[in-house]
Design goal:
Layout (H helix, E strand, L loop, with lengths): L3 E4 L5 H12 L9 H9 L9 E6 L2 E14 L4 E12 L8 H15 L4 E5 L11 E2 L5 E2 L9 E5 L10 E4 L7
Parallel strand pairs: 4-5, 7-9
Antiparallel strand pairs: 1-2, 2-3, 3-4, 3-9, 5-8, 6-8
Helix pairs in contact: 1-2
Length: 176
C-alpha cells in the first residue's frame, strides 16, 4: 500500500469534506462538524495552503491534516504558532500509519515555512509519541475550559518554545 502525501487543492475540497465527515462520524468527543471548521478555516486569514495536506492511496484521498495560524499572547509579547486541527483518516484506513505520516509531513512543512511550534487539543496517549508535551509545562493556557492533559504543544525547532508563554488566541473561524 503506497501512501502519497501532497498539498490539497481546490479539486479536493468535496472529497476532503466527505472524508472528514466519515472520519469523525463515530467519534465520541466530537461535535461532528469538523468538516465545516475546515471550510471556514480555508476561507480565513489563518489558512496556509501548504499546510493543508492530503494522503492518497491509488489516487483516492484517504486522509487529511490541517495546520492553521494562531497566536500565543501575554501582556507584553505575541508569539506566532500553529493549530493542528483536524487530522482525519477514513475509518477503513485507520491504524495503517497514515495519520502519523500526515503529522510528520506537516511538522516538516511547517518548519520549512518558519514556524516554531504547534498547539493541539488531542488524546493524551497518542500525541506524545511525536514529541508533544502538556501546554501547562510552558505556562501556555487555552482560552476555554478543557482538561489540561488534552492541551499539548510541540517545539518544531530547538528552543522553539524558549520564553514562550501566555494564552492561546485561536482565529475567529474556530468559533463561528
Amino acid at each position: 500500500m503506497e501512501i502519497t502525501l501532497r498539498q490539497e487543492n481546490k479539486n479536493d475540497f468535496e472529497s476532503v469534506f466527505q472524508l472528514i465527515e466519515k472520519a469523525f462520524e463515530k467519534e465520541e468527543y466530537s461535535d461532528h462538524k469538523e468538516q465545516f471548521l475546515v471550510e471556514r478555516l480555508r476561507n480565513s486569514d489563518a489558512f496556509i495552503p501548504e499546510l493543508s495536506i492530503v494522503a492518497e492511496i491509488d489516487n483516492e484521498i484517504v486522509g487529511h491534516i490541517l495546520f492553521t495560524k494562531l497566536q500565543i499572547k501575554n501582556e507584553s509579547q505575541i508569539f506566532p504558532s500553529l493549530a493542528l486541527a483536524p487530522v482525519s483518516v477514513l475509518p477503513e484506513f485507520q491504524g495503517k500509519g497514515i495519520r502519523s505520516k500526515l503529522i510528520l509531513q506537516g511538522h516538516e512543512m511547517a518548519k520549512s515555512l518558519g514556524y516554531k511550534s504547534v498547539i493541539l487539543l488531542g488524546h493524551q496517549d497518542y500525541y506524545p509519541r511525536f514529541g508533544y508535551e502538556l501546554c501547562e509545562k510552558f505556562n501556555i493556557k487555552m482560552p476555554f475550559d478543557v482538561p489540561a492533559e488534552n492541551c499539548m504543544v510541540i517545539a518544531l525547532t530547538e528552543d522553539g518554545l524558549k520564553d514562550v508563554n501566555g494564552e492561546v488566541v485561536y482565529p475567529k473561524a474556530f468559533f463561528e
